[in-house]
Specification:
single chain, 124 residues, alpha/beta, 4 strands, globular
């Protein structure tokens, strides 16, 4: 199983989190959990997650700790054999996790993989 850890701060107000999570719902590889680490958002992020994405495990931090401590909290909560970090300002291709799984299977000695990134507003 994979654990996808997404740090979030005001991702609903900034209109990031809905796109990111919708893309995860479209993944062809289905053996994963999603963990959103909310870094003390002041917007509607927590209510949005509870209402629209009940399958997502939400780790709500009581204070804004910043990126690295937030991600580390998510990693500690992860149950998967593989931890995948994903920023909330991304929209993953539907085969994204499948390709990560394939790369790890083809290269069992690899300790990590990195994905090709395209600009959100210029995808070519």
């Amino acid at each position: 199983m994979f654990s996808v850890v997404i740090p979030n701060w005001n991702g609903v107000r900034l209109q990031l989190l809905p796109t990111c999570l919708a893309a995860l719902r479209r993944q062809t590889f289905r053996d994963f959990e999603t963990i959103v680490v909310d870094d003390c958002s002041t917007d509607d992020s927590l209510a949005f997650l509870a209402r629209e994405y009940p399958e997502v495990h939400v780790l709500a931090l009581p204070t804004n700790r910043g990126f690295a401590p937030g991600v580390n909290a998510g990693i500690r909560a992860a149950r998967g054999d593989v931890v995948v970090l994903l920023n909330d300002d991304t929209e993953a291709d539907s085969n994204w996790l499948a390709e990560i799984a394939r790369a790890l299977e083809e290269h069992p000695d690899a300790g990590m993989v990195a994905c090709k990134l395209r600009l959100f507003d210029r995808r070519d």
